[in-house]
Amino acid sequence: MQKPIIRYLIDFLDYCEVQKGLSVKTQENYSRFLNKFFTWLKDNNYSELKPEELSTEHVWHYRIFLSRHIIDSRTKKTLKKTTQNYYLIALRSLLDFFVEKDISSLPPSKVKLAKDKADKEIKFLKLDQLKRLLESPNTSNNSGLRDRALLETLFSTGLRVAELVALNRDQVRINNETKDLEVAVIGKGSKIRTVYFSTRSLEALRAYLKSRVDMDEALFINYKRGIEKTDKDRRLTVKSVEDIVKKYVKIAGLPVMATPHTLRHSFATDLLNQGVDLRIVQEFLGHSNIATTQIYTHVTNKQLRDIHRKVHENRDL
């Protein structure tokens, strides 16, 4: 016998932890988003609704509720489309759980995500722009050597900025003969993946590490005046890396306001443009779902379309 949907939360969270290996933070988010759905069920006299009774009509009315009746505590406005989608993704994950456990219910594909016309296109840098950015730091001083190594590492590895700042020196053991390097990092959901350093990034890291005379374990450290005289951890923060990238975007005179994530986008787009299989790119980026990686195909597909138009449609037949 099926039990009401609202009584499956604990079972679902156990499934997320044991079978899917999701982090505690992700489980907390799922719990918060699903509890909003359960509250909506209770408020609309659906407390006893079972999985097999859930219909597209229920989902539709829940989407209306998300769109019109929840006020963001910070902005005092209704939820953005992207925020609404967090709630819908949690519901879809619950339906995935029902499928996995052979519990009859609405197919997950019936929960459609809200389309946001305001969604920004993926920003990435062209190769000439990347060259200007990567070569913009002044490497005659310690902070410039660090910044060059940092930028080269971001583009070479496709690391998320949080993964970058978590790197330690003992993970990057290189000498004058080192030509390639693989490093295991812990990404989202505590999943471990391997990232690869290019020859360019190793050269920049080698020069940077030779300039270090401190004992701090962090790979990328702060050079703010006076900080070396304290016992405070000198590891760069996510905000510091964002500011560093923003600084060199201005110095390089780039037309787009690039962020550390723009370098990750550029890394993925460059691989796809060179014919690397989408699933390999998924592994490089540490995406758990291929659908997340597919956002980059919009960029490469557009380029193919433009080439087709330029080469094929202007021919005289």
How would you portray this structure in words?
This protein is mainly alpha-helical. It has two domains: 5-110, DNA polymerase, domain 1; 127-307, hpI Integrase, Chain A (Orthogonal Bundle), CATH 1.10.443.10. Helices cover 51% and strands 4% of the residues. It has a two-stranded antiparallel ribbon with strand order 1-2. Helix 5 (127-134) packs across helix 9. The longest helix has 20 residues, at 24-43. The N and C termini lie far apart (69 Å). 26% of the residues are buried.
Question: Brief overview, please?
Answer:
The termini are far apart. Helix 2 packs across helix 4 and helix 6 packs across helix 10. The chain contains 13 helices and two strands.
CATH homologous superfamily of the largest domain - what is it?
A: Intergrase catalytic core
Our count of helices gives: 13
Give the oligomeric state.
single chain
* Measured distance between first and last alpha carbons: 69 Å
Q: What is the CATH architecture assignment of the largest domain?
A: Orthogonal Bundle
Largest sheet: 2 strands, antiparallel
As residue ranges, the low-confidence spans are none
Number of domains: 2
CA radius of gyration is 24 Å
Q: Classify the beta-strand content into a percent band.
A: under 5%
Helix content: 40-55%
The CATH topology annotation of the largest domain reads as: hpI Integrase, Chain A
Overall geometry comes to elongated
- Strand segment count: 2
The structure class reads mainly alpha
The ordered H/E elements are HHHHHHHEEHHHHHH
Strand adjacency order, main sheet: 1-2
Mean pLDDT: 84
Level-1 CATH class name of the largest domain: Mainly Alpha
